[in-house]
Amino acid sequence: MPRAIGKASDIDSCGLTLSELQELWLGAHPTTGSHFRSGEELVAAWEAGRAVVMRLWGSHGRRPMAWWEFDAGDLKHPGYDRERSTLWRAGVLSESERTELEAEWRREFEHAHRPDFFISTGGEVLHGDAAVQAHLAWADVPIELAQRWAAARRRRGRHEAPSEEAAVAK
After folding, report:
1. Shortest CA distance to 140 belongs to which of 93, 167, 108?
2. Which residues contact 10 (CB under 8 A, 6 or more apart)?
3. How many domains does the chain have?
4. Which of 27, 61, 77 is the last residue of a domain?
5. In the 8-state DSSP scheme, what is residue 80?
6. Full-model pTM
7. Which of 7, 84, 92, 146 has the highest Cβ tally under 10 A?
8. Could you give phi then psi for residue 62, rounded to 5 degrees?
9. How far apart are the first and last CA of the chain?
């Protein structure tokens, strides 16, 4: 009886080693350098491995370093801490990513507006507006969204977090 042979995974079939895929994700190693001998090899690797690399590491508002190098157009990588808001502002996220991030950011916004909210920076404890601003910066909440949500809170006259039932309904 013939044995069914499974199809190789996209990782195996893209023709790149795991180290090469990792370089497309994170960039060249700072001390050992690139696995690719030339820029042309790097471009060819990105073409061969783009689908795999994007599936593995191009989600949740993050993009691999090769995407920033070859597909980002005029966008420049802002660093890990500001990557998600940069991609959100540029309008390059999928609808599901945008929805996911906005929901996460809204939770962080509401969390920061709870009564008696504070945050420790390691050197000091912040309260009030300073704590809110520090938390929203840490969470990479786009200022545009924070301003919109703050204006809506003022219009409603609400200065406390929504009820648990309202939060669950969202």
Report:
1. 108
2. 51, 52, 55
3. 2
4. 77
5. G
6. 0.82
7. 84
8. -120, 150
9. 54
